[in-house]
Write a structure and sequence with these properties.
The complex is a heterodimer.
Chain A (H helix, E strand, L loop, with lengths): L6 E11 L4 H7 L5 E12 L4 E5 L6 H9 L6 E6 L2 E2 L6 H10 E4 L13 H11 L6 H14 L16 H13 L5 E5 L7 H18 L2 E6 L2 H7 L2 E6 L2 E7 H6 L4 H9 L38 H5 L5 E3 L2 E3 L2 H4 L4
Parallel strand pairs in A: 3-8, 3-9, 6-7, 7-8
Antiparallel strand pairs in A: 1-2, 1-4, 4-5, 9-10, 10-12, 11-12
Chain B lengths: L7 E12 L2 E13 L4 E5 L6 H8 L7 E10 L2 E2 L5 H7 L4 E4 L13 H12 L4 H14 L5 H4 L9 H13 L5 E5 L7 H18 L2 E6 L2 H7 L2 E6 L2 E7 H6 L4 H9 L38 H5 L5 E3 L2 E3 L2 H5 L7
Parallel strand pairs in B: 3-8, 3-9, 6-7, 7-8
Antiparallel strand pairs in B: 1-2, 1-4, 4-5, 9-10, 10-12, 11-12
Helix pairs in contact in B: 3-4, 6-7
The chains are: A alpha/beta, B alpha/beta.
Chain lengths: ~325, ~325
């Protein structure tokens, strides 16, 4: 499986130093404080497939995205893209070439486009940076083609970002991401700033582009229903760790980890089947001082003594991986 | 209160922005009633006018926006033309409010207990000690553990979900007849969202409070509301019992909206997509505002504006309803 993987993350961890300034620590007698945003996250993504990471605020999913795309160095672990370690210090030249092949789409289409640049310049920027065309006319033709590809008019290139709606701006972001012919796009909550009807347009577009170019996506979202629509595999994150990683349909039909079950249960029911949703009590604990053992145990209906003391490992159960003592013991 | 009299009755409400370039109508001829103990969901995409409708009801429109027509009645009494002083007595006492962001609805400089006590004492003739006891009871009721200890905490010492519970306690502390909740769960995580929705439903059900629940999330509406009004470009496109609107929508916009929502039950190959986006206020099309995006539009839709007409057990503002006598979806 790992041999053919396009993207492979191994034991990815990131710790942030959130200590008070030195003088405060001395006066107040406090220690340094560290926040473990991501701990020991591993996954693989195949060509043409979508891995979705879901989780609530503070679960570390955006931190993973930033490490995978190369914006944030990991504290430990590695990310390799097509077999090349992205964070190995000696391979700068190879990494330069890699950068063309991976792109990112951000949540806020208002903040991720330069308001002083015309749209054609925004989209042409990666083309110029990587030297993908030989002359100006070719660049222009390529920009026009990209705009058409995302459902905009090539004549829109002369406009500025403020002249577009949120959905159209997200299309521009997608066109910019596609302009360097990437193999892999990291999408961090690409539709959560959009209205549902516009969200549907963007999700459909992303699926079409995936089929057309064989793109692989790492899709970060807090919305399980959107994830179900997009993902081949889903990784559920809780407090910096993946607690369950399963093929999308299996995860929804039979969620195994109690947290996954709770998330699926908490989804508002549009079919109005009259199903009572079981509400999980409590909130995500403070990641600076996480509970011992399994981080979910204070909210877990299945927790027993072992959960409070021993960290559950992510173990394979058929095609999926689950990190839960209760599942391992056959109690769930 | 007479059974027949709704808590809130809005008739032909019009909200407009008067500027140098003329009048921009943002809410146009909106009418609805909410009975005691009933939850009316108001759903729509950004710019549909749902929040402005809520702000108009409680008299908190920001200038240059103002009510330019229609009536708002609270238990039969007109409040749209009430003086600012009179409205200040209505807000908090008879209409409670919950906004999207629980951090900005609480004053960060005051302890949460003091904020609740102040609100209770402004509207009810009780002593400081009684108000404090009532505040503790309320905090317990909204599910804050150790309310007696936490009443003297500041808002920043609570998490997002807990803060929204405090806001809910604050909105209900003077026992209002009507609660306006504008996107109360949008800033919260799904598991917390489910907790807050259950709480809101329980509290208002027990007290018989009428609720106007404004949200863009059809899922929240489906779980919470008794009736739902779907807004588009400042008008109500469809209004009816939540089951009918969700399961058998009549208006093409509602149908498109329902198809556009990914569900967890099935993985559709493609989501229904409505082409285009909501028109801007200065470019609302003639006739039905939805006609340029509508797959069923015909000549009449482009020239004449449809009023709400019966469609099954709902009402839809769509000429298709006039064509089909039975009111079945076209």
């Amino acid at each position: 499986m790992s041999g053919s993987a396009l993207v492979e993350a191994q034991g990815l961890s990131r710790v942030f130093d959130v200590s008070r300034p030195w003088i405060n620590r001395v006066i107040e007698g406090t220690d340094k404080a560290y926040l473990k945003a991501v701990t020991d996250v591993s996954f693989t993504i195949q060509r043409g497939q979508t891995l979705a990471l879901v989780g609530e605020s503070g679960s570390g999913k955006s931190t993973v995205a930033r490490m995978v795309v190369g914006l944030l160095p990991p504290t430990a672990g590695s990310v390799s893209f097509d077999g090349i370690d992205m964070w190995a210090p000696a391979r700068e030249a190879e990494r330069q070439k890699l950068r063309r092949r991976l792109q990112m789409i951000f949540q806020d289409p208002f903040a991720s486009l330069n308001p002083r640049w015309r749209v054609d310049r925004i989209i042409a920027d990666p083309i110029r940076a990587f030297g993908l065309t030989s002359d100006k006319a070719e660049t222009e033709a390529r920009v026009g083609e990209l705009l058409r590809l995302v459902g905009l008019d090539p004549a829109d290139g002369v406009k500025y970002p403020h002249e577009f709606s949120g959905g159209q701006r997200q299309r521009i972001c997608i066109a910019r991401a596609l302009s360097s012919n990437p193999d892999f796009i990291v999408c961090d909550e690409p539709t959560s700033a959009l209205d549902v009807s516009v969200q549907a347009q963007i999700l459909n577009l992303m699926r079409d582009l995936q089929d057309k170019f064989g793109l692989a996506y790492l899709f970060i979202s807090h919305n399980l229903a959107v994830v179900r629509h997009m993902a081949t595999r889903i990784g559920v994150m809780y407090l910096g760790r993946i607690v369950e990683n399963a093929p999308a349909n299996q995860l929804f039909e039979a969620p195994r980890h109690p947290y996954t079950r709770a998330l699926v249960d908490a989804l508002p029911d549009l079919t109005m089947s009259g199903r009572r949703r079981r509400v999980i009590e409590g909130e995500i604990p403070n990641p600076i001082d996480p509970p011992p053992g399994c981080a979910f145990h204070p909210r877990c209906p299945l927790a027993f003594a072992r959960c409070r003391s021993e960290l559950p490992l992510l173990l394979a159960h058929g095609d999926r991986q689950v990190a839960c003592h209760a599942v391992e013991a056959g109690r769930a | 209160m007479a059974i027949s009299e709704p808590v809130l009755s809005v008739r032909n409400l019009e909200v407009a922005f008067l500027g140098r370039r003329g009048k921009l109508v943002a809410v146009d001829g909106v009418s609805f009633d909410i009975a005691a103990g009933e939850v009316l969901g108001v759903v729509g995409e950004s710019g549909a006018g749902k929040s402005l409708t809520g702000a108009a009801v409680i008299g908190l429109l920001e200038p240059p926006g103002r009510i330019t027509g229609g009536e708002v009645r609270l238990s039969g009494q007109r409040i749209d033309n009430a003086s600012p002083e009179a409205m200040r007595k209505v807000r908090g006492a008879r209409i409670g409010m919950v906004f999207q962001d629980p951090l900005t609805s609480l004053n960060p400089l005051y302890r949460v207990g003091d904020q609740i006590v102040e609100t209770i004492r402004t509207h009810k003739p009780v002593t400081q000690a009684e108000a404090r006891e009532r505040a503790i009871a309320l905090l317990q009721e909204v599910g804050i553990q150790g309310a007696r200890a936490r009443i003297d905490s500041y808002p920043h010492e609570f998490s997002g979900g807990m803060r929204q519970r405090v806001v809910l306690a604050l909105a209900l502390c003077a026992e209002p007849e009507l609660l306006i909740a504008d996107e109360p769960t949008t800033a919260l995580d799904v598991s917390i969202q489910a907790q807050i929705i259950q709480l809101l439903k329980r509290l208002c059900g027990e007290r018989g409070t009428a609720v106007m629940l404004i949200t863009h999330d059809m899922g929240v509406i489906a779980e919470t509301a008794d009736r739902v009004a779907v807004m588009y470009a400042g008008r109500i496109a469809e209004i009816g019992p939540v089951r009918d609107v969700v399961k058998r929508p009549h208006h093409p916009y509602t149908q498109g909206l329902m198809g556009a929502i990914p569900t967890q039950a099935t993985r559709a190959d493609r989501l229904t997509q409505i082409p285009g986006s909501m028109p801007r206020l200065n470019a609302i099309p003639a006739g039905c505002a939805f006609n340029p995006r509508c797959a069923h539009a015909f000549v009449r839709c482009r020239t004449e504006r449809p009023e709400r007409m019966p469609a099954g057990s709902s009402e839809a503002a769509c000429w298709l309803m006039a064509e089909t006598v039975t009111g079945d979806p076209a």
